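Appendix C reproduces, verbatim, an entry submitted by the partner laboratory led by Prof. M.T., so that reviewers can inspect both the input and the predicted structure.
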Amino acid sequence: MKFLKTIFPVLLALLVGIVLYQLIDFKKLFDELQKANIWLVIIPCFIMLFAHYLRAVRMNLLLKAVGYKTSDWNTSLAVVVGYLANLILPRMGEVTRCTIIQRTNQIPANVSIGVVVTERIVDVLCVLVCLVLCLFLEYNVIYDFVLSILPFKNIEVWKLILAVCILLILGFIGVLIIKKQANKFSENKWIKKVLELFIGFKSGVLSVFKLQNRILFIALSVGIWFSYALLTWILLLAFEPTQNLSASVGLVVNTMGAFGMAVPVQGGIGAYHFMVQSVLLLYQIPAQIGLICATLLHSSQMLATIIFGSIAGLILLFNKNKG
């Protein structure tokens, strides 16, 4: 079963890659690449690197809140390598980041994993805020788009609400049962070990409530997602078919692209392309051109991730050998 969980995303990414290969007109792709403003392709790569640095500083704030201290430099290297690892296997980046931080700063992995979970929750909230901004700035377009992709658009709202309530109730009952059983068998050494890991994980998750500088944490979160939206818009300006799109459209593309990147496939391959193509189609960008633009946006960011991730990995390896 574990093997299937590992190999399925790889096979899915391969299948999607083959489909994209069939759909993309590579002559047009290279034509658009040749006409692109190279500086407007390079600059977003460094904005992305800056966003990774902000993410590292934010993670360190959470670690500091639970009594651990690390340098922004070490955590930045771990974050960049983590994004490279995500291209190999979905969600592998989070584990890689925590492993590196454990090795370089002796911070328990369960604590840093808990911190990463908190980060992801905050990121989800940030995406929802971005979605609200999109609805405000591009209401008609984004509303039609969301309706067009919802798989449950024909299901009555009350059924969805009922299903969510049932899941929440079952989850609450499950937590109570687990807590009761844990108390009963807490003397078992294996149970104790699991509980210790859970306590560390819980400490990391709840770190956000112990922050000393919450304003800085919020500012860093805003900075991260502003950087993502900015780099997406600049990349759109770099390519001829999308160079006249507004900053608000860049925000919409980035937000919807974030949903695509959340799909458990390496680098969001396929899902990101679909989301970006669908958004651009709403702005009268033909489907084929939209797919080409999505490919150029995605490829430039993936190439930057590979370059920066490889450099960060070499620095960590050199420091390890040096030590």
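The CA atoms of residues 132 and 139 lie 9 Å apart. Additional entries are available on request from the coordinating office.
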